[in-house]
Amino acid sequence: GAGVPSGTAAGNWVRIIRRGNAITAFRAPDAGGNPGTWIQIGQPQTVIMTTPLFVGFYVNNASGVGLNTCTFTGLSILPLNQAPIIDIPSLPSYPISPIALDATVSDDGYPAPISLTTAWSALSGPGLATFGNLAAVDTTVTLGAAGSYRLRLRAEDGSIATFRDLDLTGYRTAFEVWRAQHWAGSGGLSDPNSAPDADPDFDGNVNFVEFSVGTSPKATSVAPVITDKITIGMQEYLQMTVTKNPAATGVQFSIEAHDELGGVTPWTSDDLLIEENTSTLLRVRDTVPIGSRPRRFLRLHLFAP
CB burial class (10 A; 0-12, 13-18, 19+) of residue 66? Predict the structure, then answer.
């Protein structure tokens, strides 16, 4: 049209691409209402932009005479492809394996069609970390050993990949959590006083017993195990009552009987009757009457989780 300088033509398409502070310009001839081949104009220019940011077009006729105008038609601003955004909420304190991982991944929809893929991996840890589904955003991780781990969730939209790391300290049993809580300020599971067979308060009950029956490992206490007699009809029988720690999940409580402390035959529960067994109490009585045998003993047997 009139007034168009030489070397240009009405209907040119212009594209400006910003990557950080680098601005690159392109132009293309009109091809039936669409841009033809894009041609870069010069080299990328560094432009330091501060807020507020204005987008416009500057025309210079090099002579300073007359008014230059520019008309935009079909103006559009298209964002460049941005990396997927990953969010992983913090885990609750003292999680027990398998641990639920609940992440979210969002993307800007570019490039289209979007091809979003995700994958979990373990970067470090004292044991093997096994994921329920490596490719699922929401999955579980099973820890091979208690301790501190760093997990990574990676996301890719077909063009750009990003990741987010999750640091966690996980445990495999309620007993490990109990130990970590009681020795949180002195190394947790690495503190020798927290070992299952340690007795730091010297009350004769090792840590595993203290955990099982709900007593403190740092204060001298008597294990809540009561052995007494119960009368049924004309006979008396031995009876044992044990207070259980409801948080001691996985611990198996068993009361056994024997006629001799040092006998060669195994202790057994065959002659015992369970009168009550809940999450907080176990009460068992013998079915062998007192006096029918020279001696009779009951003992509590705890099985590690």
Answer: exposed
Q: Which residues contact 43 (CB under 8 A, 6 or more apart)?
A: none
Q: pLDDT of 203-216, one tens digit each?
A: 999 999 999 999 99
Q: How far apart are CA 245 and CA 210, in angstroms?
A: 9
Q: For the chain, percent helix, then strand, then coil, each to nearest 5?
A: 10, 40, 55
Give the separation between CA 216 and CA 221, rounded to whole angstroms.
7
Peptide bond between residue 98 and the one before it cis (omega within 30 degrees of 0): yes
Helices and strands: H and E segment counts in the chain: 2, 17
User: Would you say residue 152 has pLDDT above 70?
Assistant: yes
In this prediction, residues 267-288 reach a mean pLDDT of 96
Distances 125 to 32, 143, 171, 179, 282 between C-alpha atoms, Å: 61, 9, 12, 19, 39
Residue 82's nearest CA partner among 19, 25, 14, 15 is 19
Burial 15-24 (b: 16+ CB within 10 A, else e): eeeeeeeeee
Condensed to tens digits (0 to 9), the pLDDT of residues 85-106 reads 999 999 999 999 999 999 999 9
Residues 219 and 200: their CA atoms lie apart, in Å, by: 9
